[in-house]
Design goal:
The chain is an alpha+beta fold and 338 residues long. It has ten helices and 18 strands.
Length: 338
């Protein structure tokens, strides 16, 4: 067992940050806590770390009840969004800090630091200070410092949130490779759906202090458990069940709203008995695909994604009359707005 959160709740005044949450995270896995601001994901991470104490429930780490253990007793590595490096210490000294507090022999500290410098691809930069590093390099040093003491669990709170898009992308791939080498149980908080989908083995979707769904990226995207999950993960059209695009589809018309992914909107230039007429309002070229904004005759606007090959085949133009139908649509008993 890696981490087991058992029926945990946490209030801050009248605000319920975490509401009777139970969650199991397998040993050696890389798990993302994903949700909008205020959904409870960072509070849940801080409860696991021991930085917050639950009002109810228990936290188990590697089979041990850690609910009332101190941060130090839990042997957890924690990485913050803004690095939290010691500015007056070199890269080597930052990485060695936790080991020196534990009074590890100097020779072992030196060997461990050199091993980690190579692991984070900063060999040769050990004598630099944080101010002499890029944001991405500083975050790698923060990760190395957390790993130096060989923690049971590694927790990361929005680890790439302060970095620009290109550096974030590079560090995602690097974190995945790093995890595949060290295999430490890792949990990271993010509000970035793409980041969670790209890096994690499993994703935990949080909303209003509760867990909406836990699953692999494919399970979360292809089989969302709730309307909130489908709305939050990836682009989606939310349409009334009375919309003309669904007139010949097998949908649950008893539900007021239907959810339709843009890549599940089929576009044709000729009418068929199962299509609905529409007019192209706008075409957006996204490089590897084309986004078409379509106005249905009933006034609804639908977004469709087409491959470049399909777009070139249809030779679409703005204001062109087209005909659309859903490939696959989903309905849910209750709609949660984001």
């Amino acid at each position: 067992m890696g981490i087991f959160v058992e029926n945990v709740s946490k209030h801050f005044g009248s605000f319920q940050a975490v509401d009777q949450v139970s969650l199991e995270i397998k040993t050696g896995s890389l798990v993302a806590l994903l949700g909008p601001s205020g959904s409870g994901k960072s509070t849940l991470l801080r409860l696991i770390a021991g930085l917050e104490t639950p009002d109810a429930g228990k936290i188990w780490l590697t089979g041990t009840d850690a609910t009332h253990q101190s941060v130090q007793e839990r042997n957890i590595g924690f990485v913050f969004q803004h690095y939290a490096l010691f500015k007056h210490l070199t890269v080597r000294q930052n990485i060695a800090f936790g080991l020196e507090i534990q009074k590890i022999a100097k020779a072992k500290v030196k060997a461990r630091v050199e091993e980690l410098l190579e692991l984070i691809q900063l060999k040769g930069l050990g004598d630099r200070y944080p101010s002499q590093l890029s944001g991405g390099q500083r975050q790698r040093v923060a990760l190395a410092r957390a790993l130096a003491v060989q923690p049971k669990v590694l927790l990361l709170d929005e680890p790439f949130g302060a970095l620009d898009a290109k550096v974030r992308k590079d560090l995602r791939a690097w974190l995945r490779r790093l995890h595949d080498e060290v295999h430490v149980t890792t949990v990271f908080v993010t509000h970035d759906q793409e980041e969670a989908m790209e890096v994690a083995d499993e994703i935990v979707i949080t909303n209003k202090g509760r867990i909406e769904q836990v699953g692999t990226p494919a399970e979360i995207y292809d089989n969302p458990a709730t309307a909130f999950v489908m709305s939050f993960i990836g682009p989606v059209n939310v349409l009334p069940s009375t919309s003309g695009i669904f007139h010949s589809s097998r949908i649950d018309s008893a539900q007021p709203q239907i959810f339709l992914r843009p890549h599940d909107v089929l576009v044709q230039t000729k009418p068929h008995t199962d299509t609905a007429p529409a007019r192209i309002k706008r075409l957006v070229h996204l490089g590897w695909e084309i986004q078409a904004e379509l106005a249905l005759d009933d006034g609804q606007v639908v977004t469709a994604h087409l491959s470049r090959e399909r777009f070139d085949e249809l030779q679409l133009e703005p204001q062109q009359r087209v005909y659309v139908k859903p490939k696959e649509a989903k309905s849910f008993p209750i709609y949660y707005s984001i």
